[in-house]
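User: My instructor asked us to take a sequence, write out its structure as tokens, and then describe one feature of it. I'm not sure where to start. Here is the sequence I was given:
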Amino acid sequence: MTRANGSRLMITISVIAVGLSFLQPRLACAFEGSRPAQVDDATPMVESAADTFAFIRWTTRNPGGTILHYAIVRYGTDPNHLDLTAVSPTRINPAHPDMVFRVRMNDLQPDTTYYYKVSSTQADGTSDPVTSSMRQFKTRPVDQMSAGK
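Assistant: Let's start with the prediction itself. The structure tokens for your sequence are:
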């Protein structure tokens, strides 16, 4: 590569880098974690609930940090004792401003009210700044069609 071509390449790379910083500032912020999520961002919902399992889903701003995160649901049948935990690994996409977390809770009792709170951590154990308030759902009664199988 000649010296002139090398200079042109460096100028082109510099122009592209500057252009991207103006066109996609959210990408830079999500990657660096400089845009922390707010506490009220986590509004979990029951995606589905059967007699013995349920899926909880919530969306927050992209928390940044490590690419691997863990979605955590702490739950129980007493709102003062959330002594059960369900965890699901998930990967963030630094290019997206939001993050969707999803956790499956197994071995639930049929026709039972469960209370829960959600949170998440980075792969290194650092807690993300988002947690939810107490929520609840009820599992379905035993499915009579599948009970005999």
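For the description part of your assignment, you could build on this observation: DSSP finds three helices and eight strands in the chain. Try explaining in your own words what that tells you about the chain.
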